[in-house]
Amino acid sequence: MSVYENVEIAALQGGPADLPQYEGKAVLIVNVASKCGLTPQYAALEQLHAAYAGRGFSVLGVPCNQFMGQEPGSAEEIAEFCSATYGVTFPMTEKVEVNGEGRHPLYERLVTTADAEGHDGDIRWNFEKFVLSPKGEVVARFSPQVVPDAPEVVAAIEANLPK
């Protein structure tokens, strides 16, 4: 079953994010934050998005403020920071909770997949990554410390680009 099925989430700057538009694409979903030590990963995320967008790939950033309040801004402030600081062009959703009782339904589905070390369940920190197949299935999970352009992330993306 596709993680997008019957899940609604708003875009960062209003309106629905229209998750079904990602059916048929490889997607890297990442919970992001603007005031985190890992925030420079935005640069590599944007590079991946630019490099593979023409081949049926998208990064989808999901702002979250659950980790030491490292994403405190409004939607407008987040968008401005990402654009001005890292030149982000990939789509972003509204700010959501990725853990706990208020966990967004998208993350309810994502966190059932384990990473290479066997970790499943709760998101550990900002910039945890999930690679989705064109069918909307989670095919890989990477810890926050694994950089977006790490060979294993790139290999998972390339293996799932639409044929």
TrEMBL record:
Keywords, sorted A to Z: Oxidoreductase, Peroxidase
Which residues belong to the signal peptide in this entry? none
Q: Does the keyword Nucleotide-binding apply?
A: no
Keyword Oxidoreductase recorded: yes
List, alphabetically, the Gene3D superfamilies matched: Glutaredoxin
Which PANTHER family does UniProt cross-reference here? GLUTATHIONE PEROXIDASE, THIOREDOXIN_GLUTATHIONE PEROXIDASE BTUE
Family recorded in the similarity comment: Belongs to the glutathione peroxidase family.
Q: What is this protein called?
A: Glutathione peroxidase
